[in-house]
Write a structure and sequence with these properties.
Length: 169
Amino acid sequence: MTGQPFASGAHAEWIESAYRQIDPALRRYLAAMAGDRGDDLASQVWVEAVAASGSCEGGVDGLRRLVFTIARRRLVDHRRRWWQRRVTLMADPPADTAAGWDGSAERALDLIRRLPPPQAEVVFLRVLAGLSAGEVGELTGRSAEAVRVMQHRALNTLAAMLRSDEEGV
């Protein structure tokens, strides 16, 4: 640790405001990708993000990119540590992350969880986190074009699932 505090004064207020904007999407992403370990990972992410926020450029959007970059790295570390355990998407979001969501949002999350995990991750990062295709590409080691193609395929699959579900009802 350096002699500087994590955050003080106006910087602390800025972090708190950004936290309120970013944290719900971060927790949904981590809950979907890491299950019951999502909250622990979110805590780790915020500790690292606050420590690095002093050098963060781009305001809230810059911090959002930093937070989701750290989150993805923590997910990779989590998967490496627990390689014996298969990481699967959760069946239901934790009650606190679903608060205020209506049934259609929960249905959408359920459909996204049925996608192959790489496609689900791209959809979560693009839609929940609000990251660009280029930013998602940087996080996942893919080109922006590959991310767009993966998202397009995921959306086509989701549309087919919706049609199938509606026809089955």
